[in-house]
Specification:
single chain; about 500 residues; alpha/beta; UDP-N-acetylmuramoyl-L-alanine:D-glutamate ligase; 2 domains; three-stranded antiparallel beta sheet; 14 helices; PM/HMP-P_kinase-1
């Protein structure tokens, strides 16, 4: 499900994205439309929404009795005429009573879909997203804001840079926000009492001072929520480098190490995990040691290391490595004694280079973790940092279940992005060339820009895979034989 190459968020000389993992339609939901009549009893689904297994999972997390929300009818409308026939349709006469009065001209743009009875299980969530912004494409907040909004989150975007395009193009225009500008924007929210956020998602910051400013925002929001454990959660992506090198100034590293103590979930890649832990990851055992060190040194309850290729690590235990064309995401939620609960998810790599996938992963994680925690029951929602009791095994952790959905969504979106990319490049190849009018160097530059543009993530056209992921992978627990002796 993942792609074969991970680039980063795309704010440095070398673009970077963590997890490239891995019919389109547009839809709008209406809670109640003019003339809508609830379905008859014969068509309503019977029985509780939670299966016996789900009920047991709730019991594992807390002893409170969680009442499942009642099911509401949901109507879906498909806008583009191109997608007629994608799903079974109702005739115009049948669908008429469900629609508000619209003109004949505008009604042609609406294509009805079969009504469904499911609602999003993501609780109402207010998010402060602090990250980069680009005019063209989906990177930073341009990616994260839409991804979270598509799952029902209310997002306030505070942009740390504003570029024309992501830096993977190797050329861009724009500005970087200063630490004071970041602080001023947050103070503007404070003075109007606009800081009732449930989650903060922080990504790329252009300087050490900017990291400090973002950290101060996170700490202020955490302090405001102290009297209500579980009411605020901070997801932090420590964007520092990849492929064995930093692409931020050296002073950014200690700035991140200072603020990570206050985050609830961090999302480093392999290189960043090595920088934070001080441990070179060469095997499954050293990988477990690195995650354990991050839990211990920074008191971070949740860690996900994005997109590793385990086939490159030496094997000492019983867990087989996935094939070379697979990527692996490793996660952990700490136990009360500080030891990790490790899980992994293997996803097939896609032979394509995308930008913005790290931002997609972080954004979807915000929504899906909220969903998984809500499914676990009221007690976990009111627990600091949403840390499950020790009797919840790694594969059943909300963090693991959320990661599974996130990677499934991403794989579906990126598969279709790669198909669209290949089609676009094939079409371009048939166009007449400008032989003799461009120098060899200029021709290579134009070819590179064309390939980069073709690989922009098709997020909007594939939004349905964000909302309704096709779960096609499995969570695996860490085998004791693969743990260092002290952790077995």
């Amino acid at each position: 499900m993942a792609t074969g190459r991970m680039d980063q968020v795309g704010h440095s000389e070398q673009p970077r994205d963590r997890v490239t993992c891995c019919t389109p339609r547009f839809e709008t939901r209406t809670a109640q439309l003019n003339g809508f009549r609830p379905p008859s009893k014969e068509t309503r689904p019977a029985g509780p929404r939670h299966s016996t297994a789900a009920s047991k999972a709730i019991g594992d997390h807390c002893s409170c009795i969680a009442t499942a929300p009642s099911t509401r009818a949901r109507e879906q409308l498909l806008f583009p005429k191109d997608f007629r026939g994608h799903r079974s349709q109702l005739g115009k006469a049948e669908f008429g009573p469900f629609l508000p009065a619209i003109s004949t001209a505008s009604s042609a743009a609406f294509v009805p879909a079969t009504p469904t009875m499911s609602d999003s299980l993501v609780p109402e969530t207010r998010v402060l997203a602090v990250a980069s912004q680009v005019v063209y494409g989906h990177v930073g907040n341009s990616m994260a804001t839409y991804a979270m909004q598509s799952l029902g989150c209310e997002v306030a975007a505070l942009n740390t840079v504003h570029f024309s395009n992501h830096t993977g193009y190797r050329q861009f225009k724009g500005t970087r926000a200063t630490a004071q500008e970041i602080t001023d924007l947050y103070q503007g929210l404070c003075q109007s009492n606009l800081t009732d956020f449930d989650v903060m998602l922080s990504g790329y910051a252009p300087s050490a001072a900017a990291v400090d400013a973002v950290g101060a925002i996170g700490m202020d929001l955490k302090k405001k929520a102290e009297k209500n454990p579980g009411s605020f959660f901070w997801v932090l992506d420590p964007v520092m480098g990849d492929q064995g090198r930093l692409y931020v100034n050296d002073d950014v590293v200690p700035a991140y190490k200072k603020v990570i103590h206050h985050a609830d979930l961090i999302l480093p890649n392999q290189f960043e995990a090595e920088v934070l832990s001080g441990i070179k990851i060469t095997s499954l055992a050293t990988l477990a040691e690195a995650i354990t060190a991050i839990h211990r040194i920074y008191s971070v309850p949740h860690v996900i290391i994005t997109s590793m290729q385990l086939s490159n690590l030496s094997q000492s235990g019983s867990t087989p490595s996935p094939p070379e064309n697979f990527l692996t995401v490793i996660g952990s939620t700490t136990q009360s004694n500080g030891s990790p609960r490790l899980f992994r998810i293997d996803v097939p790599a896609l032979d394509c280079f995308f930008s913005g996938t790290g931002d997609m992963f972080a954004a979807l994680m915000v929504a899906r973790l909220r969903e998984a925690v809500a499914a676990a029951g009221e007690c976990l929602q009111s627990t600091a940092s949403w840390v499950s009791p020790d009797n919840v095994v790694a594969s059943k952790l909300p963090l693991a279940q959320a990661t599974l959905k996130v990677l499934s969504s991403m794989h579906s979106v990126l598969e279709r992005t790669m198909e669209a990319r290949n089609a676009e490049l094939a079409k371009r190849a048939l166009e007449p060339t400008q032989n003799g009018t461009l120098s060899n160097e200029e021709q290579q530059k134009q070819d590179y820009l064309r390939r980069t543009k073709a690989a922009e993530v098709r997020l909007v056209r594939n939004v349905r895979f964000l909302r309704d992921p096709l779960v096609q992978f499995a969570v695996q627990e860490w085998q004791k034989e693969d743990l260092p002796t002290g952790l077995q």
